[in-house]
Amino acid sequence: METRSFDTSVRLSDLHDEVVQCERCPRLRDYCREVAQTRKREFRDWTYWGRPVPGFGDPAASLMIVGLAPAAHGANRTGRMFTGDSSGNWLYEALHRYGFADRPTSVSRDDGLTLTDCYITAAARCAPPDNKPSRDELATCRHFLQRELALLTHLRVVLVLGRIAHESWLRAAGWWDSLSPSERPAFGHGREAVLPDGPVLLCSFHPSRQNTNTGRLTREMWYGIFARARSLVEKA
Asked: pLDDT tens across 177-187, in order?
């Protein structure tokens, strides 16, 4: 696997501050600011975050969850990953059910929610138009995920939500380039792979409305993923 060198004296809190200040992708920054100004009618009384969204969770986490990107009226509004939208409702309820969160809901970045043994991040840190960051934008943002991986030294399981998160994590961790196409773990709901000298990679469909409203992802399927994640963490 490719070896990367990062300054591990930098704390997660310092990295989070760096994420928030990032202006590297003009299209995404313009979009986030526009959404924060126009707002959605049901959130007209909110002051939107409107900036890149840092990761969130336990610095000693065994489980990392990688999503796609902040939602325009979710994390781009609240300032916390998977907070304030239907995907977040699915995620935090499951995290609470399986002992990774101290409550089943997440409504704002200052609501007191605590994660235990779990850290949540994403392939892109800014809300993209139509939920579609470009490949160049994903590549530009990838160094943040690489640095989180260097700082989170207790990881045993990585849960990727969707194909983009799957590829982004494999690239950030160095496996995309070090493995041949035939050796790379394939994405599929419930699939898992044990990588050499690495954590267990666990895959799930993303809990987007496109998947949950159509039945492509059911609660039973979703709970099965977190039951497996809990089992893998406890075995490690």
From this structure: 999 999 999 99
**pLDDT of res. 24:** 98
Amino acid at 50: G
Residue 140 banded pLDDT, cuts 50, 70, 90: very high
How far, in Å, are 23, 58, 85, 100, 137 from residue 52 at the CA level?
A: 8, 20, 17, 24, 13
Structure tokens at 190: 């419930």
Q: Which of 2-11, 47-56, 117-126, 217-226 has the lowest mean pLDDT?
A: 2-11
Q: Please tell me the distance from the alpha carbon of residue 60 to that of residue 118, in angstroms, as a whole number.
A: 8
Determine whether 230 is exposed, middle or buried from the number of CB atoms within 10 Å of its CB (0-12, 13-18, 19+): middle
- Beta-carbon contacts of 14 under 8 Å, excluding residues fewer than 6 positions away, are none
Phi-psi group of 97: left, alpha or beta (phi > 0 → left; psi -120 to 50 → alpha; rest → beta): alpha
Q: Can you read off the two tokens belonging to residue 77? A: 């509004």
Which residue segments constitute the domains of the chain, with CATH numbers given?
12-235 (3.40.470.10)
Amino acid at 102: D
Q: Per-residue pLDDT tens for 97-137?
A: 999 999 999 999 999 999 999 999 999 999 999 999 999 99
Those residues with Cβ within 8 angstroms of residue 138's Cβ, 6 or more apart along the chain or in another chain: 123, 124, 164, 168
Tell me, what amino acid is at 133?
A: P
Q: Are 71 and 203 in contact (CB under 8 A)?
A: no
